Amino acid sequence: GEFNFAEANAYYSERQRTKKCPLGTPHGPRFACTDVTYLNGRLYVVTGYCPGDFVLTAEERDGTWQWGPLAWGGKGDAPGKFNTAHGIFAFDGHIFVANRERHQVLEFTEAGHLIRCLPDLPDSARICNVARTDDYFVMNALEPIQHTPAKTAPIFVHTGERLASVVEPGELGIPVLKHLHHTWPHYVTQPDGSRQLYLLIHGWSAGKFAVLKHEADGVRSSPNGWSRGPVPL
Questions:
Q1: CA 185/CA 165 separation, integer angstroms
Q2: What is the pLDDT of residues 59-104, one digit of tens each?
Q3: Residue 188: CB partners within 8 Å, gap ≥ 6?
Q4: Are 110 and 140 members of one domain?
Q5: Are 83 and 125 contacting, i.e. CB atoms less than 8 angstroms apart?
Q6: 8 half-sphere exposure, CB direction, 13 A CA radius
Q7: Range of the structural domain that residue 93 is part of
Q8: Cα separation of the two ends of the chain
């Protein structure tokens, strides 16, 4: 097989034997990537929108990107498995995966060995995306946190060890951001050399988009309105 992971090889070998479905027959895709990142000459791809639910990799060989050999994950609730691997990001030589339906962000080595689940994330937060800038991770939930008064999907600022702050679009006068798919932090260098942080926000599903500017003297938000239990792997 293409990969050094038997589960992925079996899954994609089975794909070759799948017959074409008649028009109108309900079926899910066998391959559906949700995000991609790059680390040390290798592309890392998550396939959370299909039953496979893997991290797959591709390497450039003779000017062509080819799959393999590294892969891991697969659908399931055991440590290192995924239930909709939706976002992926490389930082400090490690790979971080947003495991959406388990409400987790998992940290792996670049070889796919599970290190930990990031602590202090809200229960029921369906994390779609994870990114990093300077000293903080920035991640977003798909929808408002359940059992809270919030009406919009939150954005989390996380140190890697604890939840530092929460951005609620509804509190900023953007009530249409009820569902979020991606949030990306971006610094712009000003003429005086200072750096201004912006958050680029993609709201699902009707093409919503917002840009938030960080104000250093603004009122800091704080986590509230939910319970946080033990962090399971």
A1: 14
A2: 999 999 999 899 999 999 999 999 999 999 999 999 999 999 999 9
A3: 195, 196, 198
A4: no
A5: no
A6: 22
A7: 1-117
A8: 29
- Residues in the chain with pLDDT values less than 70: 1, 15-28, 219-233
Contact between 155 and 223 under an 8 Å Cβ cutoff? The reply is no
* pTM recorded for the entire structure: 0.88
Report residue 53 as tokens.
């639910």
CA distances from 66 to 32, 42, 61, 130, 210 (A): 17, 10, 7, 25, 35
CATH of the domain at 1: 2.40.10.500
Is residue 15 domain-shared with residue 105, that is, in the same domain?
yes
From CA 164, how far away is CA 161, in angstroms rounded?
9
Domain membership of residue 12 (yes or no) is yes
Name residue, tokens 């009820």.
178
Residue 80 · residue 95 · CB < 8 Å: no
Query: 63: alpha, beta or left, given left = phi > 0 and alpha = psi -120 to 50?
Result: left
The pLDDT of residue 4 is 95
Contact by Cβ (8 Å): 233, 117: yes
